[in-house]
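pls design
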């Protein structure tokens, strides 16, 4: 009988391979030190808001590195920092911006206020050019030059998923390290242990366990100050104040085959309209009556503490309700309410590749947005960048005018902007096609008469106390 030789030995000699093992850290839990954390990043008011006029640059820079996996609350933490800055220094003195891995776009902004919060989220694999590096290393002087103020505070928050492969400039220059989740690789674990110690890693593991059972734990993180022995737990909450998103190159689309990049606002008007808010609330049909009531009272200015006491739920629950309605229901409800006001308009909206609204009778393409952002004023133009490329393209192809209609729901006013591409003649120089409350139903029809403007319809006129800062 012929001997059968097995292709694979029955008892192979396998080499011993060491599998990386992350041992559970031991040590006493770190204490909650949220107050000390805020004290480290926010100098006293007099050191930030009082201009010294001594010919020097007195700006303070605080750089925060946030480490954590996806969904660990890095973005919400940045929004919370922004809200805390507003609470300390006042809303009129604070501006805040957030970008998704585009530090260059953040640093190109025209800073205007003495307190600036910049969050560069998802920055793990971002490549920095020499110009961006130079601006970042001179951020104090850049803020002084652009604002014209010799004293102020700029906080730069960088979000990383891992230290390995991230830019050294962003991961090494920091005043505070905030760690949201236990590191999942040996390299990051060794780096983070140098800052938070074994007790910090043990605390992170406990926090991660708590997150499986309670969403409250998503607001917890471990922080460390590299210049001292200070470390502990910082507990943040959900915030109604939101950092403003920066338009990045990715957001603007591919300009190679798109001739509509540089549209500009050529006319704009604004007026108060309290009724439209109730029309929006009526369209929140998929939102429970209680959540709708919470959202409505929040817009009336009722604090989260008062709402939590009234409805017998936690403040965090109130924040989740407000955030859920704002992000998932508010925009669609506002669109439906607007469509009912203008039944003769062709309505697409949602995620359609077509424009939001088309007024064929007057040949107008309308991009419609509803925001809950108190920072928006009757003269705000940056939101015009949110007009969709499909609306610009349709307007050019059909020879229609392009307008953006914005409703700011916290102050209850409309802004209407007419946009035009560069070197394009404005089709209607009187800009008479405006949605005035008294002309509802006649929207877009030219006014009769000599073309003089209604004084009450000029931007900000007659409304200074209500909807302008």
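designed seq:
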């Amino acid at each position: 009988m012929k001997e059968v030789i097995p292709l694979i030995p029955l008892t192979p000699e396998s080499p011993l391979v060491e599998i990386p093992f992350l041992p559970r850290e031991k040590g006493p839990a770190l204490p909650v030190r949220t107050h000390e954390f805020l004290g480290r990043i926010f100098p006293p008011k007099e050191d930030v808001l009082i201009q010294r006029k001594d010919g020097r640059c007195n700006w303070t820079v605080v750089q925060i590195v946030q480490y954590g996996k996806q969904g660990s609350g890095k973005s919400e933490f940045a929004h919370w920092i922004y809200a805390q800055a507003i609470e300390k220094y006042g809303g009129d003195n604070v501006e805040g911006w957030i970008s998704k891995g585009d530090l260059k776009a953040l640093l190109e902004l025209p800073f205007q206020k003495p307190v600036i919060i910049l969050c560069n989220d998802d920055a793990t694999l971002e490549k920095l050019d020499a110009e961006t590096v130079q601006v970042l290393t001179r951020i104090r002087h850049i803020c002084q030059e652009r604002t014209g103020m010799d004293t102020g505070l700029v906080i730069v928050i960088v979000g990383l998923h891992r230290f390995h492969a991230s830019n050294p400039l962003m991961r090494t220059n920091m005043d505070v390290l905030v760690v949201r989740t236990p590191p999942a690789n040996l390299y990051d674990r060794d780096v983070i242990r140098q800052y938070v110690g074994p007790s910090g890693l043990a605390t992170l593991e406990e926090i991660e366990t708590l997150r499986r059972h309670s969403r409250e734990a998503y607001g917890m993180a471990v922080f460390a100050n590299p210049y001292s022995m200070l470390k502990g737990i910082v507990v943040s909450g959900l915030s109604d104040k939101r950092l403003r998103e920066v338009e990045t190159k990715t957001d603007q689309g591919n300009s190679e085959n798109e001739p509509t990049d540089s549209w500009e606002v050529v006319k704009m008007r604004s007026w108060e309209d309290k009724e439209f808010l109730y029309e929006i609330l009526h369209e929140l049909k998929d939102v429970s009556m209680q959540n709708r009531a919470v959202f409505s009272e929040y817009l009336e200015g009722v604090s989260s503490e008062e709402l939590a006491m009234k409805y017998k739920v936690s403040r965090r629950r109130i924040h989740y309700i407000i955030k859920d309605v704002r992000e998932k229901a508010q925009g669609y409800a506002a669109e439906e309410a607007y469509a009912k006001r203008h039944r003769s308009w062709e309505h697409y909206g949602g995620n359609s590749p077509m424009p939001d609204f088309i007024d064929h009778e007057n040949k107008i393409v309308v991009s419609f947005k509803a925001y809950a952002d108190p920072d928006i004023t009757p003269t705000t133009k940056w939101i015009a960048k949110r007009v969709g490329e499909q609306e610009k393209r349709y307007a050019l192809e059909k020879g229609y005018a392009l307008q953006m209609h914005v409703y700011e729901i916290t102050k209850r006013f409309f802004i209407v902007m007419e946009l035009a591409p560069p070197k394009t003649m404005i089709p209607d120089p009187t800009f008479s096609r405006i949605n005035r409350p008294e002309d509802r139903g006649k929207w877009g029809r030219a006014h009769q008469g000599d073309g003089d403007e209604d004084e009450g319809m000029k931007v900000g006129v007659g409304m200074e106390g209500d909807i302008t800062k």
